[in-house]
């Protein structure tokens, strides 16, 4: 029996060593500094640019990561862009869910079908869901401002938080932002990113370029 405990202890120690090696690998801390290290990427409806070292994958609907999302926002399309577990972005086309009967819920669209009002409501809903994220603690959202990106107005809220990890030693302070662009009276495009606070000056322009590069595909 004592051998079984020793084996479990050894496996746990080995897993910790591997995680420490990965965590302290400079590749997971330093974003690319050369603007030539960018490549084209795309989703079903959008095309954009990402730094080559960043990994990307399609975003499933459950990626909002909180149970209440099933009662509010619905992801129609999305992409996950990641450089490390501390530096990542999600880009999501969202809408409000409909009732099971097929009738629209009261918050699905506004009376005047205003796309910017839809974006505002989606933005506020996502910020509410962010407060329930089990991987972020002490989320401190700042003032929401209207910004211009490629001559398109968008809502932007910066925030700070504590990124959780199963090993408390690896918990880290991060800065991030949520940006929401209007698409229609029923859809909005949301960007959510966070990055290590001590690397903000390096990651912030990289994520800003990703957002700015988003374009709808030509039909």
Average pLDDT? 78
Broad shape: globular
Helix residue percentage: 10-25%
- Helix and strand element order: HEEEEEHEEEEHE
Spatial gap, N to C terminus: 66 Å
User: What is the β-strand count?
Assistant: 10
The secondary structure category is alpha+beta
Number of helices: 3
The residue ranges in which pLDDT falls below 50 over 5 or more consecutive positions are 65-70, 100-112
- Work out the strand percent: 35-45%
Radius of gyration based on Cα positions = 19 Å
Strand order of the largest sheet: 3-4-5-9-8-7-6
Q: State the major sheet.
A: 7 strands, antiparallel
Topology record:
Elements: H1 2-23, E1 38-42, E2 46-51, E3 55-58, E4 73-84, E5 87-96, H2 115-130, E6 136-149, E7 152-163, E8 172-182, E9 188-196, H3 200-213, E10 215-216
Antiparallel strand pairs: 1-2, 2-10, 3-4, 4-5, 5-9, 6-7, 7-8, 8-9
Give a written overview of the molecule.
The protein is of the alpha+beta class and 219 residues long. Helix content is 24%, strand content 39%. The longest helix has 22 residues, at 2-23. It starts with a helix and ends with a strand. Residues 65-70 and 100-112 have low confidence and may be disordered.
Short synopsis of the structure:
By secondary structure, the chain is α+β, with helices and mostly antiparallel strands.
